[in-house]
Each structure stands twice: as C-alpha cells, then as structure tokens.
Amino acid sequence: MPTPQKEQIVQEMTDKFGKATGVYLVDFTGLDVNSATELRRKFREANVEYRVVKNTLAKRSLHNAGIDGLDEFLKGVNAYAISYDDPTIPVKVLDKQKEVKDKLKLKAAIFEGKILGSDEVQRIAKLPSRDELLSQLVGMLKSPMTKLAGTLNALPTKLAQVLKALEENKK
C-alpha cells in the first residue's frame, strides 16, 4: 500500500534518475559500517550521491524515469551511486577504494542513457574522465599552433640575421 513517504521517495528518485548522467547499481553485501561511511565521504567529495533504496521503489522510479532493462539486477541489497556531471566519476571512486572494491559488486550501470553490464562497467573505470579528455584535446589542438607560431617567428629572425651578415660582408 503506497504511503505518502514512499510516494515522495519514488518521486524524488524518479527526478534523480531522470537528471543523472551516470547511475551505478552496487551490491554492498559484506561492507562494514566504517567502510560504508568512508565510501559515502569519498562520494560526497566527488559530488556523487550514494543512496540505498528498496528495490520495489527503485523499480517504480526507474520506470517513471523511462529507464527499462534493470529489473533483472534489482534483487538483493542494492545501492545507487548517482552522478549528474561526469558519468565516469562513481566507478573511478569505487576503483580507487581498494578495501571497498573487493567487497562491493558492481551489477550494472546507466551510462548516459544506456544500460551496461558489470563487464562494461569495469572498462569504464579505465577510461579517462571528461576533463582529462578535454585537456588532451586542447593539448593536441595547441601543439600545431605553437609550432606554426614558432616557424612564423623564426622567419623575421633569420631575415634579420641574413641582413646583418650582408652588412658585415660589405664592410
């Protein structure tokens, strides 16, 4: 029977799932309280929301948000790591936490609207973040311009050196 509190949770999670660029479904069985607290702190620092929601409420929220295909993963105890900025951040935070990494099981992810299995999620951890990719792109675009500027700057310098050498030869 729906209660106002459950309806509020479903509405809240529907909004979160709809806005998120990355949602990671994690089985946290075996995680002790200290490790869970540390993991939550790391997620907070990375601007990632970490929530535990009942499977029935999560299923409703996902369907309301227009996300289908996760029903097979919604069994057991689940937590959701939700990112609104860079969809790779939650899995990178999990990958850096070695003591937690062995205890947590990544079940699936919604990565920019696509549902990925656990194998694909592990590959995401090895991808550079959006900021890293943008800085690499800027570096690649900047390199030819820097070389062109150096070449164009060298022409007047060489001309001045040739003119000075001619002047010295005439003396």
What do these coordinates show?
- This protein is an alpha+beta fold.
- It folds into 2 domains: 4-127, Alpha-Beta Plaits, CATH 3.30.70.1730; 128-171.
- Helices cover 58% and strands 16% of the residues.
- It has 7 helices and 5 strands; from the N terminus they run H-E-H-E-H-E-H-H-E-E-H-H.
- The chain has helices at 4-19, 33-45, 55-64, 89-96, 98-101, 118-125, 130-170, and strands at 22-27, 48-52, 79-83, 105-111, 114-117.
- A 5-stranded antiparallel beta sheet has the order 2-3-1-4-5.
- Helix 1 packs across helix 3 and helix 4 (89-96) crosses helix 6 (118-125).
- The N and C termini lie far apart (104 Å).
- The mean pLDDT is 83.
* CA-based shape: elongated
Compressed to H and E, one letter per element, the order equals HEHEHEHHEEHH
- The amount of beta strand, in percent, is 15-25%
Low-confidence stretches: none
Q: Specify the CATH class of the largest domain.
A: Alpha Beta
Taking the sheet with the most strands, its summary is: 5 strands, antiparallel
What is the CATH fold-level name of the largest domain?
Answer: Alpha-Beta Plaits
Query: Which structural class should the secondary elements be placed in?
Result: alpha+beta
Cα radius of gyration in angstroms: 26 Å
**Overall domain count:** 2
